[in-house]
Design goal:
Elements (H helix, E strand, L loop, with lengths): L3 E6 L3 H12 L1 H8 L3 E7 L16 E2 L10 E4 L7 H10 L4 E3 L2 H18 L3 E2 L11 H7 L5 E7 L2 H13 L3 H10 L8 H4 L2 H14 L10 E2 L7 H9 L2 E12 L2 E12 L11 E8 L3 E8 L3 H17 L24 E2 L1 E8 L4 H11 L4 E9 L3 E8 L2 E2 H13 L3 E10 L5
Parallel strand pairs: 1-2, 1-4, 2-3, 4-5, 5-6, 8-10, 10-18
Antiparallel strand pairs: 7-9, 7-11, 9-10, 11-12, 13-17, 14-16, 14-18, 15-16
The structure holds NADP nicotinamide-adenine-dinucleotide phosphate (NAP) and L-homoserine.
């Protein structure tokens, strides 16, 4: 059978994994795709860079134009420019594209779908969310009959790895990030991971599919893990919670609430046991009830596995009419972040003297914050640490209460404000 020629844009962590997977499983992949697959040309930035022996150096080029001679294009270079332009050009020229690029798919999914329609081909992006976890196709196809009420996910492998190392080995944030970078989990600029932007992009992609609406990363209220302190992660552990960067998309009274933030998850909840670079998507829907998709969310071979699944699909249907990516264009109503309701863990440092607890309680009460429990630990002779756990409360109320607490002369500072897992999760 005539081999299929597959061009690849980028040959870093994921691209090298694709080559390794193809070499290791060539026979099975050929059988599943129906034809042998040959990779090349491969577009990279630096032709002189040292690469793994699996990379065919004579296939490397810097010229995108060489790619259009191929039958299928894999994009694993990442970033917005020139990746977006090259994806659009390949699709418009009638080449199916397999991409792991959540930046492009989250921001420009509609434009990408239009280019695919114009070229009469399909675009595949399973690897863009959850690394090796088959969530995109599951959501688009297998779960199409279920009305999704909520998605709560651990969508970033780097931050989950960092939080696991901080909690279990006492590693400090910076050292844990360096480990994640060395393992190939982190984005080229790891701030995208740490600040929650990578998770927000993935959440926007999932929410667009789940709610059949156009959701953009800028619709997501985002808070990263940079402000977390080891002390709170430890306190949470003592209280029976694991700290996770949660990405939540949910229907609230006809509107959609979208947010990425650190949250304490009860240790008995399945999401609490998602460690290291693993990801999980916990989905709640009307017909399916609760379902969880779990697996490696980052790394060379897990991500290559998702790319390869898409590639096999692209090759099997090569030359047949495209099925067409349905990218919803209608914008939904969004719940303003201040109206979202959460439960909170608050930690403050206060003077240890009569009446202080009453002042704190009065401020919280004035802002409609219902206290669930309070734990006070003396710190030296005159000061104490207060940990307050709240019942569900509007986020705007907490913001206002924190501002007022910060003004109390008896409160030296509110040191932490971390959400607890959403009610009903
Ligand atoms: P990476 O290791 O940084 O590799 C990027 C590759 O793209 C490199 O080969 C680089 O060339 C090439 N490249 C970058 N800019 C280029 C340009 N302007 N022109 C030509 N080539 C260019 O990235 P990665 O970790 O493999 O990630 C690739 C994509 O997969 C990203 O979209 C990422 O978000 C996504 N992804 C990654 C993971 C993961 O665990 N790493 C998981 C899921 C999805 P040089 O080699 O010459 O520098
Ligand atoms: N940087 C990303 C992560 C790669 O850590 O999850 C996978 O998309």
């Amino acid at each position: 059978l005539k081999p299929v020629r597959v061009a690849m844009l980028g040959c870093g962590t994921v691209g090298t994994g694709v080559l390794a997977l193809l070499a290791d499983n060539r026979e099975a992949i050929t059988a599943k795709a129906g034809r042998p697959i040959e990779v090349g040309p491969i577009v990279v930035r630096d032709l002189k860079k040292e690469r793994a022996p699996i990379v065919p150096r004579d296939s490397l080029t810097r010229r995108f134009e060489d790619v259009l001679a191929a039958d299928v294009v894999i994009e694993v270079m990442g970033g917005m420019t020139p990746a977006r332009d090259w994806i659009l050009k390949a699709l418009s020229a009638g080449r199916p594209v397999v991409t792991a690029n959540k930046d492009v798919m989250a921001e420009h999914g509609v434009e990408v779908a239009a280019a695919a329609r114009a070229g009469g081909v399909d675009v595949f992006f399973e690897a863009a969310v959850g690394g090796g976890i088959p969530i995109i196709r599951s959501l688009k196809e297998s779960l199409a009959g279920t009305r999704v009420r909520r998605i709560a996910g651990i969508l970033n492998g780097t931050t989950n790895y960092v939080l696991t190392r901080m909690a279990e080995a006492g590693t400090d944030l910076r050292a844990a990030v360096a480990e994640a970078q060395a393992a190939g989990f982190a984005e080229a600029d790891p701030r995208a991971d740490l600040d929650g932007l990578d998770a927000a992009r993935k959440l926007a992609i999932l929410a667009s599919i789940a709610f059949s609406a156009r959701v953009l990363p800028s619709d997501v209220a985002v808070e990263g893990i940079g402000g977390l302190k080891a002390h709170d992660i430890e306190s949470g552990q003592r209280l029976g919670w694991a700290c996770k960067l949660l990405a939540v998309a949910e229907q609230v009274g006809g509107r959609i609430s979208l947010r990425v933030h650190p949250a304490f998850v009860e240790k008995s909840h399945p999401l609490a046991s998602v460690r290291d670079s693993y990801n999980a998507i916990y989905l709640q829907g009307d017909a399916i009830g609760d379902a969880m998709f779990y697996g490696r969310g980052a790394g060379s071979l897990p991500t290559a596995s998702a790319v390869m699944g898409d590639l096999i699909e692209a090759v099997r249907f090569l030359g047949q009419p495209a099925r067409g990516l349905q990218a919803a264009e209608g914008r939904p109503d969004f719940l303003p972040p201040g109206e979202a309701v959460s439960r909170f863990y608050l930690r403050m440092q206060a003077l240890d003297r009569p009446g202080v607890l009453a002042q704190v309680a009065a401020v919280l009460g004035r802002h409609d914050v219902n206290i669930h429990s309070v734990m006070q630990t003396p710190e030296g002779e005159r000061s104490a640490e207060l940990i307050v756990r709240t019942h569900p409360v509007r986020e705007a109320s907490i913001t206002n209460a924190l501002t007022e607490l910060g003004r109390l002369e008896a409160v030296a500072g509110v040191r932490a404000c971390i959400r607890l897992q959403p009610d009903g999760l």
